[in-house]
Amino acid sequence: MSTRNAGLLFGSAFGFLMSWAGLSDATVIRNMLLLREAHVFLFMGSAVLVAAVGLRLLRAARMRAVITGEPVAWSIDRIERRHIIGSLLFGAGWSLAGTCPGPVAAMVGQGRFGALFVAGGLLAGVSLQGALARRRTVVKMVQAIAMEAPGTTGL
Amino acid sequence: MAIDRCPWYLAGPLFGLLIVGLRAALNKPFGALGGYIDLATSRPAARPGFRVPMLLGIVLGGALYATTLGTFSPSLAYVGAGLPSIGRFGDLLLLTLAGAVMGFGARIAGGCTSGHGMSGMAIGSPASIAAAMTFFGTAALLARAMTLLGGGL
Predict the structure, then answer these.
(1) d(Cα B151, Cα B153) in Å, to the nearest integer?
(2) How many CB atoms neighbour CB B26 within 10 A?
């Protein structure tokens, strides 16, 4: 199986499962955020638990990924400011729309096309962030070059 | 026909197995955000990997559910968001803005509910745990605040 087909397959299973479990209903997400029902918390908690055990078993067995042949391995990240700042914004958008990047794609598939507006916003948001980050990198590079060049003042 | 909602004790562990399965197949973390990033930033020919196909798969999975266990009746209506309704056009604009804030923030943070909240938590990444606590806290507080405005778009 190709990498692409694996993506398609895992995505389809995820989309079906989220839809069936009600996670693509904004009302369900809202009730979770208002702590009115535990369904979504229990879904996420049990998923994390099963994955935590399963992933460690794969690693302990020194498994190689079936399609890519890579050894199963991962690295963990330390907390940085961006994780907090980004998640503050993400949480706000999540709460306003009552959905997040996965479920909103499933909503589109279900024919609930209002979700296309959220998905369009998502694309615009990730593009804008990418463009700003690239610009910041370029400015930093220019500054670094200007500082190093003799006879020039910094920008 | 509409079949009852899949209980969490079935859906949760099954999704856990999907995270493990993707790791076993490709050695990649399971996250929906990447599909949007790849779709927004690369040309179709240069698009590597599984993330855009996975996003398309999620759409297909939703369609498969609607046409089998659920109901498929296409509509523009958007039920259950926390926003107070400000008219049909205004609502769609608000949803777009909510999506933009979500995408902008998630890319800064490097993940969304699936990437940080589930895959990252499963490997015990401190960054993911901090991210998940932050977005859950923010979203819960804002949802609470919006009940005061009479939300429910």
Answers:
(1) 6
(2) 21
Give the pLDDT confidence of A60-69 residue by residue, as tens digits: 999 999 999 9
Residue B50, amino acid: F
A99 three-state secondary structure: coil
Q: Kindly give, in sequence order, each residue whose CB lies less than 8 Å from that of residue A61, ignoring residues fewer than 6 positions away.
A: none
pTM: 0.92
DSSP states along A24-42:
T-HHHHHHHHTTS--HHHH
Phi, psi dihedral angles at A60 (to 5 degrees): -65, -30
Cα–Cα separations (whole angstroms), residue B29 to A64, B26, B37, B125: 15, 9, 15, 12
Chain A contacts of B47, Cβ < 8 Å?
A: none
- Mutation for B interface: A5, A20, A99, A108, most B CBs within 10 A: A20
| ipTM here | 0.93
Tell me if B51 sits within 8 A of A2, measured CB to CB.
no
Distance from CA of A109 to the nearest CA of B (A): 4
